[in-house]
Design goal:
mainly alpha; about 0% strand; disordered N terminus
Length: about 270
């Protein structure tokens, strides 16, 4: 059984620094990696431009407002998933050699989530900033509204990025990811508590769905529950700080699970 050498915190930090620099370099020097990252947000922005009614929030059109919130959050989640679901399984052989050579697994996982989160933050900024040119969110409190909604998109992206990394750690080959990725996408769509009304046991699944918490921030920041007496969603009443904290917890949980899975796997190697 492989015995891991004890390393100082300084050595582990050096691993993190080197790996982070390596992955940023891989992105900027590989057109096949960089181009999809650059195109994802503009393409999704174009889709939003086609389907969105720019005055939905000013006109208090519940249906159109829900569509816009749904598209922004689910697209943020989708970008995070697309960026991460192959990251570990595609380099499993290289990872095995480097771990047995002394690579620190937490530093490896943290470097992955750091680089992918940075990419996601830029993508969400492009998507949200771009949509402001044709969508008037009519925030009751604009100063906090813009910040909260961007944070909702960013943290949803990071949470699903971390989930994608965990799925990648579970798989041996990236070709096996089709079914898990499809399942995650369906869960974000169906249980986001936005376009589809939930009831019974299904109503509880939304609480473990990152997209639902991201949309809850949008709903609260835009004041949707105050538009009409007949419209009310419980999650829109939650404090945005709570919803954002839940998304952060999701991200940390999946980073921890990914690290634990890889540590267990490589400890069992001869």
């Amino acid at each position: 059984m492989k015995k891991f050498r004890r390393r100082s915190a300084r050595a582990n930090l050096e691993h993190f620094r080197v790996l982070t620099a390596r992955y940023f370099k891989q992105i900027f020097t590989n057109l096949g990696v960089l181009l999809p990252l650059l195109l994802e947000a503009p393409v999704m922005l174009l889709i939003l431009f086609v389907v969105a009614e720019g005055d939905a929030f000013a006109a208090k059109d519940i249906t159109q407002a829900n569509i816009i919130m749904f598209v922004l959050i689910v697209m943020a989640a989708l970008m995070g998933l697309l960026n991460s679901y192959r990251e570990i399984c595609k380099e499993r052989d290289v990872l095995a050699r480097e771990v047995f050579g002394g690579l620190d697994i937490p530093a490896y996982v943290l470097s992955k989530i750091t680089v992918l989160s940075a990419a996601g933050l830029v993508q969400c900024a492009i998507l949200f900033g771009g949509c402001l040119f044709f969508i008037d969110f009519a925030f009751p409190s604009p100063a906090s509204g813009y910040i909260l909604c961007y944070l909702a998109m960013a943290l949803t992206n990071i949470a699903v990025t971390a989930l994608g990394l965990f799925i990648s750690a579970l798989l041996k080959k990236s070709e096996s990811a089709i079914l898990p990725v499809l399942f995650i996408i369906i869960v974000q769509v169906v249980f986001s508590d936005c376009l589809i009304s939930l009831g019974g046991a299904a109503d509880y699944i939304k609480y473990i769905t990152p997209a639902a918490w991201g949309i809850a921030v949008f709903g609260n920041a835009c004041g949707l529950n105050g538009w009409y007496d007949w419209f009310h969603k419980d999650m829109y009443e939650l404090s945005p700080a709570l919803s954002l904290a839940v998304l952060a917890v999701f991200a940390l949980l999946f980073v921890f699970l990914t690290t634990a899975k890889l540590k267990r796997e490589f400890r069992q190697k001869d």
